[in-house]
Amino acid sequence: MIFARREAWTGRLLLVLLMAVTLLPFISLFVTALHPSGTYPQGLQWPSDPQWGNFADAFQAARMGELLKSSTLIVLGVVPVSLVVATMAGFAIGHLRIAGRQVVFLVFVLGLTLPFEGIITPLYYQVRDMGLLNTRWAIILPLIGLFMPFSVFWMRAHFVNMPEELSESARMDGANVWQLFWRVHVPLAIPATSSLAILLFLWTWNQFLLAIVLVDDPLNRTMSGALGAFQGQWGTDIPLLCAGSLLILAPTLAIFLIFQRRFVTALLQGSLKG
Predict the structure, then answer these.
(1) What is the distance between the alpha carbons of residues 248 and 231, in angstroms, rounded to a whole number?
(2) Is the pLDDT reported for residue 143 higher than 60?
(3) How many CB atoms are closer than 10 A to CB 126?
(4) What distance in Å separates the CA atoms of residue 195 and residue 188, rounded to the nearest whole number?
(5) Taking a C-beta distance cutoff of 8 angstroms, is the pair 266, 196 a contact?
(6) Cα–Cα distance measured from residue 119 to residue 248, given in angstroms and rounded to the nearest whole number
(7) What secondary structure, in 3-state letters, does 54-113 show?
(8) Over the chain, what is the mean pLDDT?
(9) Is the separation of the CB atoms in 62 and 247 below 8 Å?
């Protein structure tokens, strides 16, 4: 009994330490952002006269309104298409008895091993030859392809656990493959698709590498990708830079807080289903 209590307190202490380590950078950014513009704050010292206007100045300097529009367009181009294609492919590979499905699934699994950094150079030349360089399509189309291995793997993990009796009952009632997919399995896959949508949104919104390599205009990038241009312009103004960084982080932080339970469910679902 004493040993169990000691383990519980040790676990809680570790969680508190991990939470402190996680929150410390955000607290540092927030405190620094409140110092007068042009100063070099030391440590976590709270300013005597907090400059809340730094956030408004950073919003205008970085043209956050246009960056929000650009990021939203990119997300709307990536997430819905990825969800539809991944759901259909996951259903075909995980539930339908089609020939060669294991080989196709293995190809998608191998796609999980491809790092963005390893394909960025050939991807740059391919996008350039397609005439899409410096457009939002240069981010949208590659992200759909790069997210597809994980998305298909995720949806296949859901459909492979669906009972075969459910499909047999629908076939006996006269349902074809499309009706079986759309009317029976898609409604049951809403938890899996909504969890995947959250993950794809976060990954797309925070995409940095493709944005800075394939798009020169910061206003056509994601908000995270535009941070590089903002840093180059205001890199010597530490408080303003910190304020801009927090504004860029705010949307993803808000989405995480709102869908926190769904996000945790998504991680557990991906780790437990096979």
Answers:
(1) 12
(2) yes
(3) 15
(4) 13
(5) yes
(6) 27
(7) HHHHHHHHCCHHHHHHHHHHHHHHHHHHHHHHHHHHHHHHHCCCCCCHHHHHHHHHHHCC
(8) 84
(9) yes
